[in-house]
Amino acid sequence: MASSTSISWPCAQRVSNSSFNAARIRSRARSISTRSAGHQAPPKAFNWLSAALSNYGEVARALGEFEKAEGYYQRTRELYAQADAKGDQARLLNTFGYIAQHKGEFDEAEALFQESLADFRELGNQRGMAESLAGLASLAAE
Question: Cβ–Cβ contacts within 10 Å for residue 127, how many?
């Protein structure tokens, strides 16, 4: 499974292999998450906050810290719901599917990929549908 992580997330893998200060990034992510918890993000702040939390989730996931990644993604999910960002919500379901797959929770992963696929179909987002189908295909290859 480690090889699919490095293939699927080359940028995050490069970050995890570089000499950045992981503790500093975790601290900053915790600070952003704590400050934003329970507050509705103003429209301008939505983009930077959701992007920051999602990116911190990507770094945590690349480092194999899946529980931390899920926490960042869950907060991102809340922001997407507040903003009614359906495409972003569907994409995040796909991400949760890959995490479930990595944890060996194959039924959960399939359900998440299927939900993501249905949402992308409803939106008419063909690229998103392809991403969801790729997730289902990766499950079939397990």
Answer: 10
CA angle 45, 129, 48 (to 5 degrees): 10
pLDDT, averaged in runs of 10, over the chain (142 residues): 38 44 53 50 66 90 91 91 89 94 95 96 94 94 86
CA distance 133 to 29: 31
Whose CA is closest to 101, among 112, 115, 116? 112
Burial category of 82 from C-beta neighbours within 10 Å (exposed 0-12, middle 13-18, buried 19 and up): middle
Closest CA to 38 of 78, 93, 73, 89: 78
- b or e along 86-109 (b: 16 or more beta carbons within 10 Å of the residue's beta carbon)? eebbbbbbbbbbbbbbbeeeeeeb
Residues in the chain: 142
Rounded to two decimals, the pTM is 0.68
The Cα–Cα gap between 11 and 14 comes to: 5
pLDDT given for residue 68 in this prediction: 93
Residue type, 52: A
